[in-house]
Specification:
The protein is globular. The model has no long low-confidence stretch (mean pLDDT 94). The chain has a 5-stranded mixed sheet. The two termini are 20 Å apart. Helix 7 (193-198) links the parallel strand 6 and strand 7 (203-204). It has helices at residues 8-18, 59-78, 116-121, 136-148, 158-176, 179-187, 193-198, 252-271, 286-289, 322-325, and strands at 30-35, 40-45, 82-87, 96-103, 152-154, 189-190, 203-204, 211-214, 233-235, 241-247, 275-279, 301-309, 326-328. It is an alpha/beta fold.
Length: 329
């Protein structure tokens, strides 16, 4: 099929898959532009959805947009195209994060298309996981998935996990006493039938998960101090299974690499039957973030902390209408 034959329905379907990606507070800070003449997608940052307090450098925004970029690549490969990607193609345009050109037919040995079924199945789970240990073979496969995208995924030992958990608690305490952080979080929370019924973004109250009575699982409580009638209180796992995803450097290109690796790992974990959630609290405070790194590791900068295990998948969260995020020229 020649590139110019891609119709609007196909373009829309590809972007719907791309936009199923995770992003901080489900802000969905991405825009897509499709150029018919050369079969090219422009993936752009929507800086109006940035979070100046918790993400002043837009690192998390880049991670979310890169996760959407990876989904776009997977969807394109599933549809039979070979997606050729260029990161940061125009230094004068900081919103243009990547260009994806669709060329020819996907090669038979393509490793992207098999991940496509996981795009819509992937969920963020804020539920307790079981104590069943993730097998080393699965961990090795997830580490290999990160390497394919140019990042590293490591599974910390017990002392490092405890350091990570301490850092998360420290960050949570700082957030709770920072009015700007509290207000920024509140902006993305959707509580009540009317709010969650009309919102196309943010975190609805049905996705908060239960309150934690005991346990060490690092799960952000989006309710804050706001009580929710009927919200269950449960015991979470005492020894959460965590992984850290990182890069050698810490520039916008590294964030885009890390975001694509993050989504590849999440999709592979979903294919492997794992439940997942992301933990970024400790990475949002510069004075806490450096503690998350293992000094004996070659990983220069931790970009995301992942919680993995066996348990219920989280609910689907709202998505913005495609016509809000897609332009076809």
């Amino acid at each position: 099929m020649p590139v110019h034959a891609i119709d609007e329905k196909t373009v829309t379907s590809l972007v719907e898959d791309a936009a199923a990606a995770p992003s901080m507070h489900n802000a969905q800070p991405w825009e897509f532009r499709f150029l018919r003449d050369d079969g090219t997608f422009h993936v752009r940052a929507d800086l109006d959805r940035a979070m100046p307090r918790t993400d002043p450098a837009t690192r998390a925004l880049h991670l979310g947009c890169a996760a959407a970029l990876f989904n776009l690549r997977v969807a394109a490969a599933h549809a039979g195209w070979t997606p050729v990607t260029e990161l940061l193609p125009d230094p004068s345009d900081r919103r243009l994060l990547a260009v994806v050109r669709l060329t020819g037919q996907a090669p038979a040995e393509d490793d992207l298309a098999p991940l496509h079924p996981a795009i819509r199945r992937r969920r963020t789970s804020r539920q307790p996981f079981s104590d069943e240990v993730v097998p080393d073979a699965i961990k090795d496969g997830l580490s290999a998935a990160a390497l394919l995208e140019g990042a590293r995924l490591a599974f910390p030992d017990m002392w490092h996990i405890q350091t990570l958990l301490d850092s998360v608690r420290d960050a949570e305490g700082r957030d709770a006493h920072d009015p700007a952080a509290v207000e920024e979080l509140r902006h993305w929370v959707r509580v009540g039938t009317q709010e969650r019924g009309t919102a196309g973004d943010g975190v609805p109250d049905y996705a908060f998960g239960p309150l934690k009575r005991y346990g060490g699982a690092p799960v952000r409580d989006f309710a804050g101090r706001q009580p929710l009638p009927g919200r269950e209180t449960v015991v979470f796992e005492s020894a959460p299974q965590l992984a850290v995803l990182g890069t050698r450097d810490d520039r916008p290109r590294d964030w885009l690499v890390a975001g694509q690796a993050m989504e590849r790992v999440l999709l592979q974990a979903t294919m492997d039957g794992l439940a997942t959630s992301l933990t970024s609290q400790a990475l949002e405070w510069p004075e806490v973030r450096w503690i998350t790194r293992d000094p004996e590791s070659a990983m220069g900068f931790v970009q995301m902390v992942m919680r993995l295990g066996y348990g219920p998948s989280g609910p689907a969260t709202p998505r913005r209408p495609v016509d809000e995020v897609l332009t076809i020229d």
